[in-house]
């Protein structure tokens, strides 16, 4: 039987950003909101989700991601703003926004798609919206989220947290009842 791994490429985040994620979660929990909260220690900014990839194809994916970062220089981003997907009346994902040197980030995303997009289970149809996810909203949580847009506006007014992007990381995602576990498969330094 063919072994497969769930894989994604992402930007790992420094402690300062993980602290902002933890603070956002604590702020929202203190207001009585319920959701499926992420572990701030495993926070990341997803560049491309590949889904199930045969383990024998992983070396080829690694080579494709190495080609993706070639010539891309390190850049700075900032955590700023907060919101929901897809719509405030029907939130499914709470997010913290990302701004800063977005042209460099978009170039990296395009290069990953060009070199490694064929490893993904499906082509991406949605426009890339850089974000960090502190929570996913389950249907049973919706009743606890009264006043959420105003609270997200307050979170969005916090001072931005800048962070350098110096590498792309390939992660394996394993799903457990207690939550996902992410394992670093390979790191790809920029520059």
Structure description:
- This protein is of the alpha+beta class and 191 residues long.
- The chain has one domain (4-189): Cyclic phosphodiesterase (Cyclic Phosphodiesterase, Chain: A), CATH 3.90.1140.
- The protein is built from 4 helices and 9 strands, in the order E-H-E-E-H-E-E-H-E-H-E-E-E.
- Strand 4 and strand 5 (90-100) form a beta hairpin.
- It is globular, with a radius of gyration of 17 Å.
- 30% of the residues are buried.
- The model has no long low-confidence stretch (mean pLDDT 94).
Any chance you could write out the topology, listing elements then pairs?
Elements: E1 4-12, H1 15-30, E2 36-37, E3 44-54, H2 58-69, E4 75-87, E5 90-100, H3 102-116, E6 131-136, H4 148-156, E7 161-165, E8 167-174, E9 181-189
The low-confidence runs, each spanning 5 or more residues with pLDDT under 50, are none
- Note the run of SSEs as H and E: EHEEHEEHEHEEE
- Amount of beta strand: 35-45%
Distance between the termini: 39 Å
What is the CATH architecture assignment? Alpha-Beta Complex
Give the beta-strand count.
Answer: 9
CATH class wording: Alpha Beta
- CATH topology (fold) name: Cyclic Phosphodiesterase, Chain: A
Determine the number of helices (DSSP H or I, runs of at least 4 residues).
4
Count of individual domains: 1
Structural class: alpha+beta
Mean pLDDT: 94
* Percent helix: 25-40%
Write out the CATH superfamily name. Answer: Cyclic phosphodiesterase
Quick one: overall form?
globular
Question: Biggest sheet, strands in spatial order?
Answer: 2-6-5-4-7
* Biggest beta sheet attributes: 5 strands, antiparallel
Rg measurement, Å = 17 Å
């Amino acid at each position: 039987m063919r072994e497969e791994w769930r894989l994604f490429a992402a930007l790992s985040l420094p402690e300062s950003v993980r602290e902002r994620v933890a603070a956002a979660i604590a702020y929202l929990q203190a207001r009585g909101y319920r959701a499926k909260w992420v572990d701030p220690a495993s926070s990341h900014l997803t560049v491309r989700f590949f889904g199930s990839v045969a383990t024998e194809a992983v070396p080829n994916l690694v080579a494709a991601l190495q080609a993706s970062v070639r010539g891309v220089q390190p850049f700075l981003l900032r955590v700023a703003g907060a919101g929901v997907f897809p719509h405030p009346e029907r939130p499914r994902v709470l997010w913290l926004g990302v701004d800063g040197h977005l042209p460099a980030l978009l170039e990296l995303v395009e290069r990953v798609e060009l070199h490694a997009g064929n490893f993904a289970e499906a082509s991406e149809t949605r426009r890339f919206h850089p974000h960090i996810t502190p929570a996913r909203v389950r249907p049973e949580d919706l009743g606890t989220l009264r006043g959420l847009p105003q609270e997200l506006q307050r979170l969005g007014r916090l001072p931005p947290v800048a962070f350098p992007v110096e590498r792309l990381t390939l992660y394996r995602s394993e799903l457990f009842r207690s939550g996902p576990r992410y394992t670093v498969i390979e790191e790809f330094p920029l520059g």
